[in-house]
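Pipeline run #58 for the internal structure catalog. This entry was flagged by the ingest filter as a single-chain record with no existing model, so it goes straight to prediction. Upstream metadata was stripped on purpose; only the residue string is passed forward. Reviewer on rotation: M.T. Logging verbosity set to normal.
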Amino acid sequence: MGHEEKQACHSQEEHAYMHAHGLEHSHGHVHENQKAVVNRLARAIGHLQKVKRMVEEGYDCPEVLVQLAAVRSAVDNTGKVILQDHLRHCMVDAVAAGDAEAIDELCDAVERFMK
């Protein structure tokens, strides 16, 4: 059974509850920006691999720091895309279902992400 079929088996309220409680992640939680997120992560991994090679090859510290800044920026921007997608879809469903716990969970996740 595909993701769409599994999701179709649940009402919007059930979907919001399952997402807010981490129950739907086991069957492939997919958002419209999934491909963009995967591409961004691949670029961040590429930058990080370059940083590793630079350290191994003895590049100057300022050059390594510039590349590390690129990695941090790529990861932060990926997080923004995920957060925006979550707000536009998952949180809309959770609010429609009256799931206040989902808001608390999002606040906790944002707190951890922003550290």
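catalog note: The two ends are 39 Å apart (CA to CA).
catalog note: DSSP finds five helices and no strands in the chain.
status: ready for reviewer M.T.
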